[in-house]
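Worked Example 4.2. Consider the chain below.
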Amino acid sequence: MKRSKRLQSILDLVITREEEVSHHLNQARQRLEKARSGLASLQDFRAGYTRQFNQAGEQGMGIRQMLEYRAFLSKINAAIEEQQKTLSRNESEITRLRQLWEQAHRKTMGVRKVLEKSLTEEGRRAEKALQSEMDEWASRKATAARDADG
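Applying the procedure from the previous section yields the following structure tokens:
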């Protein structure tokens, strides 16, 4: 098997790996956007709930109602904190996957470059072999012509 054929097989493998990592990176980006959106929604909900709590406080509320508002606000804050942790994990995952993709991409480019050089070299060798055959043929034809004349 020619070197270029073996290199093409390797290139196909590294391209597949690069595409897999790229796919995982895109999925991680989607999860990050979903986490950001979820965090924004929770923060908006907390802001609205806080306004509602403040308005109810201005109008007067009982201790039980105030405790319920505060308990629910505490739950919202805990959900926001958890969402922020999820967001941070997603950002770390994207950084890790981006580094993996960059590695895979460099490997793909390296194998592609070696394959191109190999194909160029094989082309040169084929041209050289063809030239040798043509020279041999011309030499035999010239020898045959001299023998026929001679």
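The CA atoms of residues 39 and 83 lie 6 Å apart. The two ends are 47 Å apart (CA to CA). Compare this with Example 4.1 before moving on.
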